[in-house]
Specification:
The complex is a heterodimer of chains A (about 250) and B (about 290). By secondary structure, chain A is of the alpha/beta class. Helix content of chain A is about 35%, strand content about 25%. Chain A is built from ten helices and nine strands. In chain A, the strands form two sheets. In chain A, strands 5-6-7-3-8-9 form a six-stranded mixed β-sheet, sandwiched between helices. Chain A has a three-stranded antiparallel β-sheet with strand order 2-1-4. In chain A, helix 4 crosses helix 5 and helix 5 runs parallel beside helix 6. The longest helix of chain A has 16 residues. Chain B is globular, with a radius of gyration of 20 Å. Chain B starts with a helix and ends with a helix. Chain B is built from 14 helices and no strands. The chains are: A alpha/beta (about 250), B mainly alpha (about 290).
Chain lengths: ~250, ~290
């Protein structure tokens, strides 16, 4: 067997299993991603996409297997702010009384002191991040007054401000406008050139072909994994979606 | 209503202040209101109203046992408050019963235990003052305890203000950047138990949940900024306490009930007239005249 040099991989998940009170959500899942790779995570609702994300961020504990982030444990990845998670729009309380600035500043919390007092460098990082997602007119706008796309960009800015080397994005393209979609795709290219690693879940097959170097098809476990051009075949997709043909599933949209 | 015939606003406010017990009641209730109001913004945003109700009722047997054993009542209340939450979590995990059912089941059980204990332990426990509060008859040792607990909660909330906000808003992000979510969860629960303990002196066990949710709900209707929400919540809680105590003094009404009613009226006012989120959107109304 080849010896794995962990330094080569940003994400290294080996045979991971997650169960919630005895109910298996994910089993024997493997994933290896290098710097600069963009990987699509595709599966049905309840196939374990969010669970996979949760395992990588340490939000849930794995019952079996091993996860290495930049060759280190998940715990030290948390301490180093290595991973940024960009939630689905539905996953956050949009009525929370908080401004764009406050949300993006949360990306800096992990590296601040216990009172979370922003230093000059934190303020600069937040400013830069908000500029990169083109929300400079909305510094103090409450997130409840933003459009879906603007809200998505706010959370992307938080990930940028965090200066994470790994980005996990849950449905980054759902419910966003054309402008946001274009901006996100431009950011992806920049992130790739910066050597960041991106894992994104999506329902949209076109986005997978467009952005993802690799694709991970899951249905409680890995159905197929590899280069998008090789793995993203109608047969594999059909298997992933429990025997239902993708044309039927995605016909109208794609 | 002959009261108004000889009362000026000045004496309406000043006369009660000549009584020592009224000065004490006004001060202590304001302190308690400030603590509960501070915590209230977090509980409203976290969606912990039912949890607040559960914890505040569950402290009942703790208070009774502590009184009977001559221990500080806050200690007993704290143990039972946190214990009830642990029990709720345990039953939820080990059975198929839904969470809101488990919460309702556990806290009524604890509450019933408290009532049974009061009837069995024939001591100087005044059931009425536990159930309905007695801000006018607060003892010196209670004053010391209340001040101590209130300061403790305010200091804890102040230190972890931003972390708790993040925890309520996006616990997943908190965890991802290495913030101890487990600690924050129990910190919030601890503050909830402690606030319930001090709050029950003001308005009693049955109504203390109002102190923990109404000011936050009122503030939520009035602002889109978290810091402002905390300030409005604290202020509305203090003002309600003062109004409630004055009204109860002049009209000889139950004090706890008056305080909570004052809070409810302030909430209704915000509900109807809040600039952006009220039924009658005053902001739009006035904008129409420009």
């Amino acid at each position: 067997m080849e010896t794995i040099n962990y330094q080569n991989f940003r994400i290294e998940a080996e045979n991971i299993c997650v169960d919630y009170n005895g109910k298996v959500a994910l089993y024997d899942a493997n994933l290896r991603l290098k710097p600069g790779q963009i990987c699509g995570l595709v599966g049905m609702n309840g196939a374990g996409k969010t669970t996979f994300f949760n395992a990588l961020t340490g939000f849930v504990n794995i019952s079996k297997g091993k996860i290495r982030i930049n060759g280190e444990s998940v715990r030290s990845a948390q301490k180093d702010q290595t991973i940024a998670y960009v939630p689905q729009n539905e996953g956050i309380d949009s009525q929370f009384p908080i401004s764009v600035w406050d949300v993006v500043m949360m990306g800096r919390y992990g590296s601040m002191n216990i009172f979370r007092c922003p230093r000059e460098s934190d303020i600069q990082a937040v400013k830069d991040a908000i500029e990169r997602v083109d929300l400079t007119d909305h510094f103090s706008t409450p997130i409840g007054n933003l459009s879906g796309g603007q809200r998505k960009r706010t959370f992307l800015a938080r990930a940028i401000a965090q200066r994470a080397s790994i980005l996990l994005l849950d449905e980054p393209f759902s419910g966003v406008d054309i402008r946001t979609e274009k901006l996100i795709s431009e950011l992806f290219i920049q992130f790739k050139n910066e050597g960041k690693t991106i894992l994104l879940s999506t329902h949209d097959m076109i986005h997978v072909r467009e952005f993802c170097d690799l694709v991970l098809l899951i249905n409680k476990t890995v159905v197929a994994y590899g280069e998008t051009s090789e793995v993203f075949t109608p047969e594999n997709i059909t298997t992933t979606f429990g025997g239902i043909s993708p044309d039927f599933l995605f016909g109208p949209e794609s | 209503m002959e009261i108004f015939s000889f009362l000026t606003l000045d004496s309406f406010i000043r006369d009660p202040l000549t009584h020592d017990f009224m000065r004490k009641a006004l001060l202590m209730s304001s302190l308690v209101a400030a603590v509960c109001g501070f915590l209230s913004s977090y509980l409203t945003l976290k969606g912990w109203a039912l949890m607040g109700d559960a914890v505040s009722h569950s402290v009942m047997p703790g208070v009774v046992v502590a009184y009977a054993l001559g221990l500080p009542f806050s200690l007993g209340a704290f143990i039972f408050g946190v214990g009830s939450v642990a029990l709720i979590g345990f039953i939820k995990q080990k059975s198929r019963v839904k969470e809101d059912t488990v919460i309702g089941l556990v806290f009524t059980g604890f509450f019933a235990l408290g009532i049974v204990l009061v009837s069995k332990i024939k001591s100087n426990i005044d059931l009425h003052s536990i159930l309905f509060g007695s801000p006018l008859g607060i003892s010196l040792s209670d004053v010391k305890q209340t001040i101590f607990i209130s300061l403790l909660v305010v200091i804890l909330l102040s230190i972890f203000r931003k972390d708790l906000m993040l925890y309520c808003f996006d616990p997943r992000h908190a965890k991802t950047v290495g913030i101890n979510v487990f600690f924050l969860h129990y910190l919030l629960l601890t503050c909830l138990s402690l606030a319930a303990v001090v709050g029950l002196q003001s308005v009693g066990i049955i109504l203390v949940v109002a102190m923990l949710i109404t000011p936050g709900a009122t503030a939520y209707l009035l602002t889109d900024k978290f810091d402002n929400m905390t300030i409005i919540s604290v202020l509305s809680a203090i003002i309600s306490s003062l109004i409630g105590i004055y009204i109860s003094f002049w009209f000889d009404l139950e004090t706890g009930g008056s305080i909570v009613l004052a809070q409810t009226f302030i909430f209704l006012f915000a509900f109807l007239f809040a600039p952006r989120y009220g039924i009658f959107k005053l902001k739009k109304f006035f904008a129409g005249y420009k």
